[in-house]
Design goal:
It holds the Pfam family SWIM. This protein has 476 residues and is α+β, with helices and mostly antiparallel strands. Helices cover 36% and strands 23% of the residues. The protein has twelve helices and 17 strands. α2 packs across α3, α5 runs antiparallel to α8 and α7 runs antiparallel to α8.
Length: 476
Amino acid sequence: MVEITETWIDSQAPNSAAIKNGQGLVKKGRFLKLHHSEDQAVLFGTCAGSGSSDYQPSADFAVPEKPVMRCTCPSRQFPCKHVLGLLYAYAAGASFTPAEVPEDLAAKREKAEKREERKLKEAAEGAAAKPKKVNKSALKKKLQAQLEGLDVLEKLIHSLIRNGLGTLDKKEHKRIQEHVKQMGNYYLSGAQTELRRLALVLSSEDQEKAYTYAVGQLAVMNAMIKKGRQYLTTKLEDPDMRLDHESTIEEWLGHAWQLTELQSYGLVSEGAELVQLSFLSYADDARLEHVDTGYWIQKDSGEIHRTIQYRPYKAAKLMREEDSFFDNAHVPVLYRYPGDMNRRVRFEEMTSSPVTEEDLAWIRNHAACSYAEAVKNVKNQLKNPLSDSNPVMLLHVSEIGRNAEGQYAITDESGQSIGLDDVYMEPTVPMLRYLPEEKLSGVSMLVMFEHSLETGRLLAQPLSIITTNEIIRLLY
């Protein structure tokens, strides 16, 4: 069975409220019975409900990386607080006695086992899932509509530049909002998001700062129009109208990659081992979504990946909320999205184990030692307006101190330094003053870079510090 730790249980919870409520059931002694099957693959019990009836939560670990959690309660959350409480009780060392699995639960397990056997048999016989059929006629019309939408967007952008941002009035702001709606009609959800982002920037009360960032946003949109038009024209000429799996242009135009698509292009790896180094969550008003982002390091390659979950404002309460994960994640199949540094990854199943000092050692060994080379790689990415503007790297730090200007800076073995500043909405640099002296030298640091449009300087914000015996998260 998978090692059940509090961190692993937290990762299964739909939100922080469910975690609190599940732990509360254990603290209040609401569990009347706690059992495990003879083979210890199933945990089950009885929890006192709020009404006259009790609930029977269970967790089936027949397939360790894909446990099946059930409960007889009417909750729409999955897993519910009763299942989480059952798992928290087990992780806390509560006494679980062996017992025979209840008949109704055993029947459900039998059905699930038969489905799994059928899948394995089909796989052994080479039966693959039928590829999704593409209606080329409909796709062609969609691509032509997207091209038309890019033309409409380009006219708007040129008009704004020609007239000057300083002349914008309520009428112009209204015209931008109308174009935001139009982009959806042209199947350009990516352009819709970026145009909405421009509108938000221009509505800022600090006009001088707004114009600075608006120019940067206009450059991004101009690059998207240019590259998008070139890509769509080429795609229309391709008889198969294949997706571009080597760049991020599909996502910029609004394509949502399916796992089967990533698999068909070979963007998968098996048996990956990942450790999350940092986590952040924020509200993106341009996307109208909450964004949960985790930064993970892959053991065999040392690459820093991102897991990203988008939760639309309208459906956020119904969706599982991602959170920090403090254990080692053993992933059977890792899906990789097209991209450059910190490419997005996704996994559907995992098992976990505690992070050891040996794990910390290999993480530290993957840290870049030369700041000159690291900065070069960052700048090469930032040259492309359609690349992620906040690349993240793991750097070896000889010393953390203050430079001549009184600014915190990190220094490599050769004496080259990088100034630290806050680029994300949550500050972390002020926390460095609270670290003991031994944590300020001979460590590794995960940093987020950004090119400041106001100063023209490359900024770096510390996210985490990795020592020989711990990961100190400044942002989580």
